Amino acid sequence: MKRIGILMLVVFFCFVSTAWPQAEPQANYKIITFDAPGATLTLPLGPNVWGSIVGHYADASYVVHGFLRSPHGSFTTFDPAGSTGTYALSLNSEGAITGTYFDSSGMCHGFLRSPHGSFTTFDPTGSTCTMSGNINDFGVIGGYYTDSDGVSHGFLRAPNGTITTFDVKDAGTGSGQGTFTFFFNVLNEFGAITGYYIDSDGVSHGFLRAPNGTITTIDVKDAGTGSGQGTFGAVVNDFGAIVGWYIDSDGVSHGFLRAPNGTITTIDVKGAGTTPCDLACLQNGDGQGTFPQNITDLLAIPGYYTDSDGVSHGFLRAPNGTITTFDVKDAGTGSGQGTFTDASNQLVEITGWYIDANGVLHGFLRRAY
Fold first, then answer.
1. pLDDT at position 18, please?
2. Is 180 helix (H, G, I), strand (E, B) or coil?
3. Taking burial as the number of CB atoms within 10 A of a residue's CB, which of 37, 74, 229, 242 is the most buried?
4. Reported pTM
């Protein structure tokens, strides 16, 4: 639990001395694949430090439900009352879960599921859809919501239920524009939150909002300046290091690491595709390149990359910059298939999903040993 902060950091540094000798990549690991009971697709979205995994799955009727997978592999499934679709998005070390659910009218709302299974639902004032994407170990929840004009705004929910909303100054005010955050670890233990905003020209820019509310804009030098291009902040660790990706003027994605002092390092996995992708291509999610998905406090960075054939593969970047790639054995090898990472815990246990040759999504856990 992060409330024992210094002790946990000692544990993490002990871990790095064993699992990351000489800052080399993990040589020995195993991949465990899994599906939620009765699932037609399974989408895990992150483990906590104890190895529990949260996510959601679709049943045979294509109704979506939340799940919690224990470190031993047992599943608990859940839905808030009145849900017609539950998307569990983040889990803290206490066992609290946050996410989003849809009601019968098609509106979406944030929820908090306590470690004991009780639910609290919430929405910022003016929200027509609340995307509750991340919860830290102190119970602070971060996310964004969309108003009746289709404009998005950031929010933070305190443990007592108080909601603070925010907007980046230069965010656009048209439908589909505004302030956004991703899911899992956009929020660190000190209350700093990262994400991106879309300006009035449709260009994206990263941002970091400090615990005191100060917002810093992040633009990678080589990011494109056309609609659908730009910089996307994804994750911030407890020391203020940020990873994300940027889309260049050709529509190709590149990872970046922004140090707490503002220095930016580009991350490109060897083998990542560089085929140009126009706005329609980007909107269809067909862009190639490198997509970091998390950063630990010790600067291990998992993610995935898409090659020139449109196939995705997992990667792990060690603190010294060495990159190891990996694939789930049963992942498909056609365009749009492959291995996709989405998160990890501080012990670099990586979760994600793979799409098989039939186009079906399954969960996986990559664990060092």
1. 38
2. strand
3. 242
4. 0.91
